Each structure stands twice: as structure tokens, then as C-alpha cells.
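So, can you check?
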Amino acid sequence: MKAFAYERPATVQDAARLAAERPGARFIAGGTNLLDLMKLQIETPATLIDVNRLPLAEVTDTDDGGLRIGALVRNSDLAAHPRVRKDYAVLGKALLAGASGQLRNKATTAGNLLQRTRCYYFYDTTKPCNKREPGSGCAAIGGFNRIMAVLGASDACIATNPSDMNVAMRVLDATVETVDPQGARRSIAMADFHRLPGDTPQIETDLKAGELITAVTLPKPVEGVHLYRKVRDRASYAFATVSVAAIIAKGEGDKPKLAKLAFGGLAHKPWRVAAAEAALVETGSADAASERVLDGARGQGSNDFKIPLTRRTLRATIAEALRA
């Protein structure tokens, strides 16, 4: 690990200002991902800005019946929050499906939004990686790519977003709140927060230089069965090969009257297709919905299995929701 300066600002505004003034600075809260990357010298921040003492650890009701989650709320606290358990169960289930109890006690909401990919080649500094070193190439293309993307990838990067929480936040239509170094506040729809890799896979989010995440806001609850189904190599402490976050409200017969679906493990960002949700409501057919989700899907060899696995996972999720 390389030497770095350390700052502990007293206000949100000071934190954003410091980040803008110190090139290469990084915010740190739980540090469950960043510290690992620093040990491997994948991340070499000149300054760490510790935001743990900022007043961003509250969960509060919003005036319109939604929920505002402070950036520093720990994953374990959020999963156990009464309103999350009652009104946003898909979020609680996704959080509990991720990491270990010890990690959830440290990891924060904002940090979870910013998790870096678990691509093998991103972590192997002897191999080319356009995300780690732009312009160096992508060893995953043509390499061992079992965990890589089958949707939304590019010739520059086929990495996936590893977060369980992000998939639930996407299906809940969350909004990310930020403050910039000038004090201006901004709201970013979860749909727009993470980027596809394109030619610049090193740019993973819509955040601007120095911009600090302050909260995530959820709209008022949606009626329906909340499920999070995660397919992984081990029963615990493993990232998703494929995951589905679903909110499904029963209708008449075999057709739901409402369906919201988001997928993890498939792309550089949580994947959601409005046409798939509409197809499920119109036909009641999981296969019809799968066809819309997987439109344009392309395996890279080792990860070809993700395409039929997604169909089966979605089929099982829908069946479970309609039985509930």
C-alpha cells in the first residue's frame, strides 16, 4: 500500500471541497472494497477523505410516503430497518444475500453503490484491463470469462457490477442524492447512475469530480410480493452469477397485474427492461419476459451458460411470486 494523506472533514461541504482540491482523492467510509484495492495498488489515492463522522447515517420517512436512506447507513442496519422489512422487502433480502455479517456491519449504502467489479483481470495487475489502465486492452475477452457480462458489454470491457443492493435499488426506482464542491445538490435516477462500459469502462458512474453521495431516496412502496433470488457458486459469501430482484402483484388467473424486474450479474450495471415487465403482465409468460430481457445477449464462451440460467432463474422467481 502506498503512502497517502488523511483528512476527516467536519461537514458535507468540506468533504466535497477537499475532494475537488486534492487530485486523486477518494472518500472512505466502511472501506470494505477500497482498502482491498489499495493493498493491491489498483487504487492509489493521494488522499483519503474519511466521511464517517458526517451526519449521513439516518433513515427517515419522506413527505410522499417514501424513504430517505443516508449514505452512511450500514448494510446490516438498513436490512433490519422496520420500514425496509415492511415496505421494501426486496431491498432487505438483497442486502442479506450479500457479503458476510461482518462486512455488512461495515459496508455503507453509498459504498455499495460504488462497488468495483470482481473481474479476475481487473484484480490481476499483470494482465491488461481497460478499466484499471485505459487503453491497455481486455484480457477477459478471449480469456476465462465465466462471471462476465452477456448484456451491454463492449469491445473494451465485459465486466459486471457485483452489488446485490444495486439490483434491488434499480427495481425500486431509487434516486441517488449528491452534493458537489460548490454546494449544489443533485438527484440522479438509479437507472442513470451506473454507466455501460462503451469506450470508457474506467468511468463507472454519472458522478462528477468531487461529488459526494449523501443519500438514496426510495419512492412510496409498491404493492406486491418482493423477492430477491441469487444464483451463486457457494451458499454464502459469493457474488451473484445471476440474480433477480422482483416485485410482482398477483392479478386474475396466471397473469400478474404488476411486474417490476431487475437483474444482476449480467451487465456493467443493474439490468432492467420495461418491455419484459410489460410482456409478463400481458401474457403471464416467463419465457416471453425472458426473451425481452435477453434481447441482444451474447456470451463470451465461458459465460454462455448465463443466458439459459437467466431464463430458469426468472421462471423460478415468477413461479414463487405467484404461489405466495
About this structure: The chain is about 30% helix and 20% strand. The mean pLDDT is 97. Residues 306-323 form the longest helix (18 residues). Residues 171 and 297 are 20 Å apart (CA to CA).
